[in-house]
Design a protein that fits this description.
The complex is a heterodimer. By secondary structure, chain A is mainly alpha-helical. Chain A has a domain at 2-170. Helices cover 71% and strands 0% of the residues of chain A. Chain A contains 18 helices and no strands. The mean pLDDT of chain A is 94. Chain B has a single domain (4-113), classed as Heat Shock Protein 90 (2-Layer Sandwich), CATH 3.30.565. In chain B, 38% of the residues lie in helices and 30% in strands. In chain B, strands 1-2-4-3 form a four-stranded antiparallel beta sheet, covered by helices on one side. In chain B, a hairpin with a 2-residue loop joins strand 3 and strand 4 (105-113). The longest helix of chain B is centred in the N-terminal third of the chain and has 19 residues, at 4-22. The model of chain B has no long low-confidence stretch (mean pLDDT 90). The chains are: A mainly alpha, B alpha+beta.
Chain lengths: 385, 114
């Protein structure tokens, strides 16, 4: 656990490679409990967005977030709410997703030319600063892509990360993306997560059986949703259908990894858990599969190896663009996925891996560029009811 | 409360866009009233074509209730596009909402406490 906490934690630091399976799983579990604790003390209802946030934090606790480096962001958002005089719960969602910038603290505190307590203090100050500016920026950035990039905080984090990295580099800090991966726990993790997702589906079916709700009708409503922000499937459908959708999306993601010949390492598990979380908040097979298909087809034509971790996580996290497929159809989704692969492979250098949701950053550019063009040539569809 | 007036105009924008695009409203009247401690927004749409299932979905969506956990972050999305709707977000920005439909006339009344 010490090695995980002291690692720079930027993209891509697989905690399985840094600290082993035991420490990684403990870290993921504790990060999840911290999120649940926050939801509990602020009396926040467990709806789709918060399910997505908790799963995202747990997923990234396999490669970038740990029980120490998430706190400066969480407290930074707290300072913003104090200054604005609003309850913390109003921006708790931003705080949880905002931990995308957790490596900002780790990199400065443990991997810069500064030493000892000075490094930790400066890391805390920069992390707090990032947390303070996140809420107003996150809300404003929504208009850049009109909600077609589900990982909006990833786009916001990319902007803040790029500014921070540029400033830090100009003062002599070295911040570059690295790649530290291991496939050592591949089989164990595949077994664990396939079992987990299957149990989610079974659990959802049991809940649906016990309730009076019409499961088919709820699933149909979820599938009819474009997934554009704000699409809370616990309200559009209900909890049993949402849990089933989450389990199904977990298996779809796992199948995608199998088909591309990839391994279950930290980033891939993070990608899968994020997709599962967002299956309560915008993602379903109908709007995600076109994106996965687009990334796969593009990987066959482009310079990257199809089974590489980079391509696989570009596909999994690329489903941030699912609303484009949901709104404009299969071809638009495939196009978005294909374009996303190229963009995401090139924007990481801007923030040097400081922003963990690099695909959200890339997705913002893809959505903002593609949606107006598609809208002009494909035309608007009938408004959903 | 910050951006209160802008939030009200976003609500108006979204509801009008939705009802004109989805229900084909031909005539629209809007009233915004600043009452003590709250805003009251009333919409009257004429020439509306809506079936029972659509009305039921609309009533269910608008019954979500105020949700500050999401409103303060997502409110800027309201009224931004005409190709999909943010009615659920509008419901999250309203303390109460009533929907009535009769003979092609749709009435929606929203209350937003300050």
């Amino acid at each position: 656990m010490g090695l995980i906490i002291l690692s720079p934690s930027g993209l891509l630091h697989d905690y399985f490679a840094v600290g082993g399976a035991g420490a990684t799983l403990v870290n993921a579990g504790l990060c999840g409990m911290i999120c649940c604790f926050l939801l509990k003390i602020f009396k926040i209802n467990i709806t789709g967005p918060f399910i997505a946030a908790v799963y995202t934090v747990i997923g990234f606790a396999f490669f970038g977030k740990n029980i120490i480096n998430i706190w400066p962001i969480l407290f930074g958002v707290g300072i913003y709410t104090k200054v604005q005089g609003v309850p913390y719960k109003n921006f708790a969602l931003v705080a949880l997703f905002g931990t995308t910038l957790a490596p900002l603290f780790s990199t400065i505190a443990f991997a810069s030319f500064l030493n000892g307590w000075w490094a930790i203090a400066f890391g805390c100050i920069v992390g707090l600063g990032a947390g303070i500016v996140l809420p107003p920026l996150a809300s404003h950035m929504l208009r850049f892509h009109d909600g077609y990039n589900i990982y909006n905080i990833g786009f916001t984090g990319g902007m803040i990360g790029s500014f921070s990295t540029a400033l830090l580099r100009s003062f002599g800090f070295t911040i570059e993306p690295t790649s530290l991966l291991t496939d050592e726990y591949d089989f164990l993790m595949k077994f664990f997560f396939i079992t987990f997702f299957s149990m989610m589906i079974a659990g959802g079916l049991v809940l649906a059986h016990r309730s009076d709700a019409n499961l088919g009708d709820s699933i149909r409503k979820i599938f009819a949703s474009s997934g554009r922000l704000v699409s809370d499937f616990t309200r559009i459908g209900d909890y049993p259908s949402t849990i089933i959708n989450m389990g199904v999306m977990g298996l779809v993601s796992t199948l995608f990894v199998f088909l591309l010949g990839g391994a279950f390492n930290g980033p891939v598990i993070g990608g899968i858990l994020t997709v599962v979380g967002f299956a309560a908040f915008g993602k379903h097979p109908k709007n995600c599969i076109p994106i996965l298909l687009g990334v796969y087809i593009a990987s066959l034509l482009k310079v990257w190896e199809t089974g590489s971790t980079g391509v696989i996580i570009a596909g999994l996290f690329g489903t941030t663009l699912a609303p484009i497929a949901g709104q404009y159809g299969l071809f638009s989704g495939v196009l978005a996925g294909a374009l996303h692969l190229s963009i995401v492979m090139n924007v990481g250098v801007l923030h040097g891996g400081i922003n963990l949701y690099n695909n959200g950053f890339a997705g913002g550019f893809v959505a903002a560029t593609l949606v107006p063009v598609i809208d002009a040539f494909v035309g608007e569809k009938k408004n959903e009811t | 409360m910050r951006h209160e007036i802008k939030k009200i105009t976003k609500i108006v924008d979204e509801v009008i866009t939705f009802c004109m695009c989805a229900f084909g409203a031909t005539n629209t009247e809007v009233s915004i009233e600043r009452a003590p401690g709250e805003y009251r927004v009333r919409f009257l749409f004429q020439g509306v074509s809506i079936n029972t299932a659509e009305l039921s979905d609309l009533e269910k969506t608008m019954a979500v209730g105020r949700n500050p956990e999401l409103e303060d972050y997502y409110w800027q999305l309201a009224g931004e596009t005409e190709s999909s709707n943010e009615l659920e977000l509008i419901a999250m920005m309203s303390d109460s909402a009533t929907v009535e439909y009769h003979d092609g006339i749709l009435n929606i009344a929203l209350t937003r406490k300050l």
